[in-house]
Amino acid sequence: MKPGAFAYRRPATLDEALALLASHGEAAKPIAGGQSLVPMMNLRMAQPEVLVDVAGLPGLDAIVDLDDAIELGALARHQSIADSPLVRARCPLLAEAAACIGHYAIRQRGTLGGSLAHADPAAQLPLVAVTLGATIVVQGAGGRRELSAREFFVSIMTTALAADELVVAARFPASGAREGAAFRLFNRRHGDYAIVSAATRVALDEAGLVRRLDLGVGAVEAVPVSLAALADAQRGRRPDAAWIDAVSSAAREAVDAQDDARASALYRRELTGTLVGRALGAALAQARTGAVTP
Ligand SMILES: Cc1cc2nc3c(=O)[nH]c(=O)nc-3n(C[C@H](O)[C@H](O)[C@H](O)COP(=O)(O)OP(=O)(O)OC[C@H]3O[C@@H](n4cnc5c(N)ncnc54)[C@H](O)[C@@H]3O)c2cc1C
């Protein structure tokens, strides 16, 4: 399939890009890595009249340490996130998730901003953003605003972005000592979107009890799901094997899994329990020893 006809604009600055989006309204779409938008255009699921290519905008691919968080520009590519020593040290969950997106060629082109804006409920980076409570920074001709990831994702492939706004950055809370994190997914073929995915970060106190837990599940509902209420209730618990079983069972019951052509709701619910258990086991091992369990 081939896309419909479109005009192509390549602005040199962020202001110019925002002005183009404002003047064309719904008829325009930004393109960054093109790894989701181009297939959608080829299938005629998206038919923008004007493509505003933001991939070359200067200064939007930086990854910066803000002490209690790391901030990534919207044009940070999946593979740069996976390879970044700063992300690996300060937010290993994000690096691990980025490393398992699609295939190498896709990771070399796809961007953080594109993945967040595309809002596929099975995508890795939106799940990490929701699980960790990331902040998404968006900008339009009228100025900047900041949204929590949980406000940003509205429904399947639908976000709180206005047509004239761009994602410009996202801030992810940084990890500290005695913390471990893990991302686990199940798919039928390497590189496919997940049928279910689970993300977690656990912090232990000096006695080895749960100090804080973040837990989220992807590809089961229309948006990535934060299991914050379940996670918050785990503070002070002893994280042994029975605890992992109990949290996995509770996660399985907490999701409102949906059917689609790839898997039934029942199968997704069962997978949720299994993957949450695996992710918790790996994250705990890391929190205790500092070692990453593959
Ligand atoms: C074969 C294949 C397998 C894949 N597997 C996975 C996978 O397993 N997991 C996964 O997460 N993804 C997967 N992807 C998608 C890939 O991660 C994309 O890179 C990502 O979804 C979108 O990033 P992009 O920069 O390519 O965005 P684009 O394709 O350029 O744009 C996607 C959408 O975001 C909008 N957009 C782009 N940048 C911005 C911005 N800064 N602000 C506002 N809107 C913006 C566009 O208008 C468009 O609506 C796969 C893609 C392919 C082709």
How is this structure best described in words?
The structure is a single chain. The protein is of the alpha+beta class. The chain has 3 domains: about 5-50, Uridine Diphospho-n-acetylenolpyruvylglucosamine Reductase, domain 2, CATH 3.30.43; about 65-175, Uridine Diphospho-n-acetylenolpyruvylglucosamine Reductase, domain 3 (2-Layer Sandwich), CATH 3.30.465; about 180-285, Enolase-like, domain 1, CATH 3.30.390. It is about 35% helix and about 25% strand. It contains 12 helices and 14 strands. The strands form 4 sheets. A 5-stranded antiparallel beta sheet has the order 4-5-10-6-7. It has a 4-stranded antiparallel beta sheet with strand order 11-12-13-14, with helices on both faces. A hairpin with a 5-residue loop joins strand 12 and strand 13 (about 210-220). The longest helix is centred in the last third of the chain and has 25 residues, at about 265-290. It binds flavin-adenine dinucleotide. Flavin-adenine dinucleotide binds near residues 36, 54, 110, 118 and 191.
